[in-house]
């Protein structure tokens, strides 16, 4: 799924207008500046007309009528002065409009991105699992940017076009209705032509974007897989593949350029028709004395001024449509509601880490129950393990304790309080969690360990690492605790990552430690290290851990064996082995496998 569904709602512009109230004054000012700028933009043509009028009619000129100045030089002087004022105002309003629109676009973009990210962050883990990261990222990045582009470029252009047609139309209308008709006649052709072109170009541009993304994807994948390419001496094959993708990009671009280049010459014909008729018909009227010469020159200039900007209608409309589609997607994302919402309560006293599941049924989406009636108790201070075959529902059980999802029925309690009533800090603040896929943030080892407690001192970080048996290998890294890990940092082994995650969890000094052991990530050394560190780090706290290697949980106070979403048996290691059930069989396989000759 690439983007959230777009529900029927108010027009996105209405929605944005009410959402970003704070920017209204700036928006109004930006519109005013754009209008002023357009008006000033049209003025020089009028001044030229007035100047010609002065030269031709002298004392009877329009300027003479308005100012009461007879002398032609004086009249021209006034016009020149007015011209200077107009140009200054045009430049100033152009500057102000650009700064205002761009600033507004940037501000809305920033607010929207931060708001959307904050919202996405608050949505359920399940919501994210049902979508691709790329799809959500596209809304947070591309759609937010597209809206910025519309505000920065599209909105001022639309205002400019409208003001232009209205102003020029008014000048024509007060001058001559015949010429108005002639000058406006090509407008439908130009607008329709622009729209048709836009529609024809759209798939061509889509093809260009598509081919560039294929090319980028190929390049990125190849750079990532360079060792494999070299190992299989596939260099030539990959070079050919990149060349083919690049060629496709070139071909797509060529097609788009050919079509888009034909646009202006064709539209030019329509403009030529309007211009020529104004020139001729207006000229005849002027010769016959029905039209003042000055006005005639104004109208000839104005025809161009009216028609040329209209060639941008197509691309501007496209910008508008994209902007609105993007705004709809961002707004739809903001409308998504979290189903797992935090409570407001706190625990009655300090957290002790006792966990209880009562008659819990849980599952994913519309699927069957993954947990089908679980009753489980971890008394405060005890270390319990959950084991069972793959897919038995072990990780799901841990997710319920952290409230990454809620049960379909039944209750999950922390220290006797339903987790649904607790605020995030009360619940998750009491838990140190080590997930199956350890996520390291881009930053130093120190930052990663201190993630849950950024104010921890170096000694505290070190002590947590020692307890998690991470100190040894961290010391051997080039920069020790300052070594950069995560994206673009040094690559750590699965076992090392897990030990860092354990250090991160225990630095928070949580009442309850929740561990989801990853099968693949645990080597023998880590297994032994975790076993040793578990004894240490579970002192004085409760723990609930999913284990695949039964040897790591031998010493647990109680082991729960899950099978098919139910508790098959539970007890201490010795009790379960003695009982000769599922656990005893798993134990026999694992120890037998360990003893078998390699
Ligand atoms: N996010 C999810 N969406 C849909 N189904 C899921 C999701 N996560 C787990 N499941 C399904 O729920 C069942 C239990 O999965 P779970 O991860 O809890 O098992 P597990 O006992 O931890 O397995 P493993 O030992 O392999 O980690 C599996 O059938 C799995 O396919």
Automatic annotation (TrEMBL):
Matching Pfam families: ABC_membrane, ABC_tran
Keywords: ATP-binding, Membrane, Nucleotide-binding, Transmembrane, Transmembrane helix
Transmembrane among keywords: yes
Domain ABC transporter: 355-589
Any one GO molecular-function label of the UniProt entry: ATP binding
Keyword Transmembrane helix: yes
ABC transmembrane type-1 domain residues: 28-322
Subcellular location: Cell membrane
Residues that span the membrane, as ranges: 153-173, 179-197, 266-287
Name of this protein: ABC transporter ATP-binding protein
Species assigned in the record: Aquipuribacter hungaricus
């Amino acid at each position: 799924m690439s983007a959230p569904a777009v529900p029927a709602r108010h027009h996105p512009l209405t929605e944005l207008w009410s959402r970003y109230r704070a920017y209204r004054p700036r928006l109004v000012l930006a519109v005013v500046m754009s209008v002023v700028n357009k008006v000033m933009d049209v003025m020089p043509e009028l001044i030229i007309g007035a100047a010609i009028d002065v030269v031709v009619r002298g004392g009877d000129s329009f300027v003479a009528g308005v100012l009461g100045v007879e002398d032609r030089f004086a009249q021209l002087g006034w016009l020149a002065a007015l011209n200077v004022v107009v140009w200054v105002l045009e430049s100033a309003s152009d500057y102000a409009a650009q700064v205002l629109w761009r600033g507004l676009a940037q501000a809305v973009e920033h607010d929207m991105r931060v708001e959307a990210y904050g919202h996405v962050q608050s949505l359920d883990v399940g919501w994210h699992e049902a979508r691709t990261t790329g799809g959500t990222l596209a809304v947070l990045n591309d759609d937010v940017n597209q809206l910025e582009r519309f505000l920065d470029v599209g909105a001022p252009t639309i205002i400019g076009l409208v003001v232009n047609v209205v102003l020029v139309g008014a000048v024509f209308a007060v001058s001559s209705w015949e010429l108005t008709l002639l000058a406006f006649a090509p407008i439908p052709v130009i607008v329709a032509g622009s729209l048709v072109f836009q529609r024809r170009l759209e798939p061509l541009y889509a093809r260009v974007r598509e081919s560039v993304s294929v090319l980028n994807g190929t390049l990125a994948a190849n750079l990532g897989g360079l060792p494999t390419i070299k190992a299989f001496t596939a260099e030539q094959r990959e070079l050919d593949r990149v060349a083919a993708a690049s060629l496709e990009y070139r071909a797509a671009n060529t097609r788009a350029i050919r079509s888009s280049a034909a646009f202006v010459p064709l539209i030019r014909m329509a403009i030529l028709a309007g211009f020529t008729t104004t020139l001729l018909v207006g000229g005849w009227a002027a010769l016959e004395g029905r039209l003042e010469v000055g006005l005639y020159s104004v109208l000839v200039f104005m025809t161009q001024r009216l028609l040329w900007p209209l060639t941008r209608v197509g691309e501007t409309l496209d910008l508008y449509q994209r902007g609105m589609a993007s705004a709809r997607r961002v707004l739809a994302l903001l409308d998504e509601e979290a189903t797992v919402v935090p409570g407001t309560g706190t625990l009655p006293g300090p957290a002790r880490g006792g966990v209880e599941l009562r008659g819990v049924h849980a599952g994913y989406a519309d699927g069957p129950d993954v947990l089908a009636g679980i009753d489980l108790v971890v008394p405060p201070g005890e270390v319990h393990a959950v084991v069972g075959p793959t897919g038995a529902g072990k990780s799901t059980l841990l997710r319920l304790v952290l409230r990454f999802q809620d049960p379909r029925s039944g209750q999950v309690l922390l220290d006797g309080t339903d987790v649904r009533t607790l605020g995030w800090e009360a619940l998750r603040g009491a838990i140190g969690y080590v997930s199956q896929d350890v996520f390291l943030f881009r930053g130093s080892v120190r930052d990663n360990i201190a993630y849950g407690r950024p104010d921890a001192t170096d000694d505290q970080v070190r002590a947590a690492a020692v307890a998690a048996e991470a100190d040894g290998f961290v010391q051997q890294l080039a920069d020790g605790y300052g070594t950069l890990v995560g994206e673009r940092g040094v690559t750590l082994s699965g076992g090392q990552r897990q030990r860092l995650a354990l250090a991160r969890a225990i630095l928070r000094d949580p009442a309850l430690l929740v561990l989801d052991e990853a099968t693949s990530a645990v080597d023998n050394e880590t297994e032994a290290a975790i076993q040793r560190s578990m004894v240490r780090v579970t002192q004085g706290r409760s723990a609930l851990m999913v284990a695949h290697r039964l040897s790591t949980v031998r010493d647990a106070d109680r082991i729960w064996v899950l099978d098919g979403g139910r508790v098959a048996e539970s007890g201490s290691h010795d009790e379960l082995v003695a009982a000769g059930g599922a656990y005893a069989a798993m134990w026999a396989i694992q120890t037998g496998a360990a003893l078998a000759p390699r």
